[in-house]
Amino acid sequence: MIFIMRYSIAYIMDLILGDPHWFPHPVRFIGKLITLLEKLLYRFSCKKITGGVLAILTIGITFLVSFYLVKLSPMLEIFFLYTTLATKSLADEGFRVCKVLVEGDMEKAKKELAYLVSRDTNSMDVTQIVRSILETISENTVDGVIAPMFFAFVGSFFTIEGVSLALPFAMGYKAINTLDSMVGYKNDKYIDFGMLSAKIDDMANFIPARIAGGFIIPMGAFLLRMDYRSAWRIFFRDRLNHSSPNSGHSEAAFAGALGVQFGGRTSYFGKWHDKPTIGDKLKHFGIPDVKRGIRLLYVSSWVGLATFIILSQLIGVII
């Protein structure tokens, strides 16, 4: 019960504070650690082994630092649990681009979107910008919200020397996610060096992605009176229509709930790719869809919190 209270406070802090740009977010320090270790390890010839060492050291150091932060103070645990969540920051990023679109400044909208996505934005129209925003929000609903919640609640059942592992588990997940975003690419530089980091990220997101797409997002759609039946239908039909083994699950549920179609022709680094489609094209993308997607993000985050609280109580009674 004490952990549930602390985590609920952390969740509320995220909804209120988000991720202020002036604040030195812990993920930035994880990123600096990865950069430092990469400089030390990349020089060696066996990239798969040294890349594995990078992943193990980054996750291990993050876990240990988080453990001692919890040991120092319950207030530090609450604060750093808050930093693992990204509901408001995801919403703020979407709203920022949406606001520029409403003002009619397409060039600025493209520049703002370029901070959020790796795809080329220069030649995008309004439809493509809106689609990109919604795909980003739907995918990151797992990485930025549901997965950190999942690992925090799993960690809350374990202790070392009386110290809860909720924060070390959640922050360890953020380290995994950051590793994947920095070195988990299938290009010449990272195909071997980032292989283990990418594999660990796939494994870490396996359960959260399926919980999000198969239950949490459709339930959020139900509460918002969106098309929750289509959210489930498209989830089961199209969740594997993605190059990632996990990203398609949340995208499929979002697409079904909003009545839109993700995927299709997309440009990355100057090359066009025909991505498999996800969802039925029941309507064209429009600026109001961004606000609908953000509402679904917020309500899904609340459903996620409620779901893990209920599950933790039930498991606590059983064990």
Explain how this protein is built.
It is a single chain. With 319 residues, this protein is mostly helical. It contains 12 helices and 4 strands; from the N terminus they run αααααααββααααββα. It has helices at residues 2-17, 26-41, 47-72, 74-83, 87-103, 106-114, 126-155, 166-183, 195-223, 228-238, 247-258, 287-318, and strands at 159-160, 163-164, 262-268, 271-278. Strands 1-2 form a two-stranded antiparallel sheet. A two-stranded antiparallel sheet has the order 3-4. A hairpin with a 2-residue loop joins strand 3 and strand 4 (271-278). Helix 1 crosses helix 4 (74-83), helix 5 (87-103) packs antiparallel against helix 7 (126-155) and helix 7 packs antiparallel against helix 8 (166-183). The longest helix is centred in the C-terminal third of the chain and has 32 residues, at 287-318. It is globular. It starts with a helix and ends with a helix. 45% of the residues are buried. The model has no long low-confidence stretch (mean pLDDT 94).
